[in-house]
Known about the structure:
By secondary structure, the protein is α/β, with parallel strands linked by helices. The chain has a domain at 14-64 and 97-141: CATH 3.90.1180.10. 28% of the residues lie in helices and 19% in strands.
Amino acid sequence: MKTYLPKVNLEQRAWHVIDANGAILGRLAVQVANLLRGRNKPVFTPHMDAGDFVVVINAEKVRVTGKKETDRFFMTYSGWKGGEKYTSIAQTRAKQPERLVMHAVKGMLPKNHLGRKLLTKLKVYKGSEHPHAAQKPAPLTATH
């Protein structure tokens, strides 16, 4: 018996726009990751890219629960001695709120070449404006 591989039509990729205003970060990231992978489609295959493009607006208005705003840290390392830097979610929200959503979604995608390719289909903006109006993205509501 041969393995069935679905035909993924790359021209039929849809565009979705999600307003993150008041949405909980983890629940929003799950919804976005599922759309990027194409888990809502009947042709979903784990090792293929069958997902859609996702535009997230109002990234600075996303919510986190509990005391994560001040107690959860992102760590970066430069490679040099003493090159570790820690930034809280509040500091990241003040400087680059897009990174909050990108980091959460990246953690829910496969950790391989496919995951890096899927992440390029995610567009995150901190305001309510985005330059993808020509693609006619369909609005989706974020799960609260």
